[in-house]
Specification:
Number of strands: 5
Distance between the termini: 31 Å
CATH architecture: 2-Layer Sandwich
CATH topology: YaeB-like fold
Number of helices: 2
Shape: globular
Number of domains: 1
Order of helices and strands: EHHEEEE
Radius of gyration: 12 Å
CATH class: Alpha Beta
Strand order of the largest sheet: 1-5-4-3-2
Structural class: alpha+beta
Largest sheet: 5 strands, mixed
CATH superfamily: RelE-like
Length: 87
């Protein structure tokens, strides 16, 4: 199942501020997520509290991406950053 992925303007702004090497890593993880959203290395999980209804997956040990599902095969990426992206 291949996902269609959209990007909120805030995600794009945050992405552009990342170092080039990290941008490449983010792109690789987005592609992996698109191809297999359940891949164990992504650590996809629901968020709680104020972020209820949103999900997250790992870029690496420090960085995460926050997203929402809009239908079964459509995802919108909301934010990318370190753990501060949750707050």
């Amino acid at each position: 199942m291949t996902l269609r992925i959209g990007y909120k303007p805030a995600f794009i702004r945050q992405f552009k501020k990342l170092p080039e090497a990290l941008q490449r890593e983010v792109k690789d993880r987005i592609q992996a997520f698109r191809e297999d959203p359940q891949h164990p290395s992504l650590y996809v999980h629901k968020l709680k509290g104020e972020l209820r209804g949103q999900w997250s997956f790992s870029v690496n040990y420090q960085y995460r991406m926050v997203f929402v599902y809009e239908g079964k095969r459509n995802v919108v990426l909301l934010a990318v950053g370190d753990h501060g992206v949750y707050g």
